Amino acid sequence: MKWDSLIEAAQLVRDRAYAPYSGFHVGAAVLMDSGEIHLGCNIENRSFGGTICAERVAVGSAVASGSQAIRAVVVISETEPPAAPCGLCLQVLTEFGGPDLPVVLINPQGSRQEFVLADLHPYPFQLPPQGLGRVSG
Description:
This protein has four helices and five strands, in the order H-E-E-H-E-H-E-E-H. By secondary structure, the chain is an alpha+beta fold. It has one domain: Cytidine Deaminase, domain 2, CATH 3.40.140. The chain is globular, with a radius of gyration of 16 Å.
């Protein structure tokens, strides 16, 4: 896989993050099966529960554009080592990418870690095979 365009896109969008409270800027780029790249940056809110992570913004952009199958993800953060996606983002990535989804974590200093999603999220939430139906008892 050629990561250069995804990394460059994630770096660019990281600079657009709205993080006035934490100062923690994150950028994400998702490559879809269609070959399209969708971007996301974190968007904080003074009501912290309203904050949206970069990964979910990128996935939301992809879905809004009609794409639903993610082929690869790059996430850039300022931390050393680079920060992994939070639990909510990992669950969303699982929904649209599956356990073998390649995930690259980088930072502006050049640190890079490569995973598959199952390494970062080994036990995703799953509905029982019969769905949520009514529980008797």
